[in-house]
Amino acid sequence: MAAAALAAAAGADGITAHLREDRRHIRDRDIERLKAEIALPLNMEMAATPEMQAIALAVQPHAVCLVPEKREERTTEGGLDVIGGRASLAPVIRSLSDAGIRVSLFVEPEAAVLEMAKTLGAPVVELHTGAYCDAPAGPAREAELRRLQQAARHAEALGLECHAGHGLTYDTVGAVAAIPTLVELNIGHFLMGEALFVGLSESIKRMRAAMDQGRV
């Protein structure tokens, strides 16, 4: 809660919290307290499982972002398989949407994936920026940036609200923030690591400044 309060004071527009099935990041009570005690919108990241669906329906966060989970990963790696998993995703999306919760899907920046997200009825997609952030500076990273730009344009054409996130740093966030149709960026791990050196408030302020500079 203290971290969320510091983030709000430092200029964050919302709080994203990932309640994993193994509870390694946060616990159920944390989600409840964030919803009750923080004025900013709460975006709950979760796997599309019956257990998580029930928790989201009970807590009623502002938004839910459906993400894949693997036991061996340190954090979420890669986008949802919305094409292969469409049969199981559709009822979860419908149930959460019917409850008034904004649903987003964490996806790869690929046209077919975005089109399936639209078919499934999700109003929002969050583009996975991991490949862009992992690519070395130069032609490889520029190619990944173009993928993100093209995907954002395609999402807009489909009528999807477009967000982005994963692995963004001070060095990589500006070009992504400059994509005009992106509405929201979700950044967490880098900020917490940087906070070890400069404090959480300062890391968020610097990131916000880098994002705003990208929008200029």
From TrEMBL:
Stated name of the protein: Pyridoxine 5'-phosphate synthase
Report which superkingdom the organism of origin falls in.
Answer: Bacteria
The protein's matches in CDD domains, at most eight in alphabetical order, are given as: PNPsynthase (cd00003)
- What EC identifiers does the entry list? 2.6.99.2
The positions flagged as active site in the entry are 18, 45, 166
Which source organism? Pararhodospirillum photometricum DSM 122
Protein keywords? Cytoplasm, Pyridoxine biosynthesis, Transferase
Q: Which GO terms describe its molecular function?
A: pyridoxine 5'-phosphate synthase activity
Top-rank EC class of the record's enzyme: transferase
Return the InterPro entries for the record.
Answer: Aldolase_TIM, PyrdxlP_synth_PdxJ, Pyridoxine-5'_phos_synth
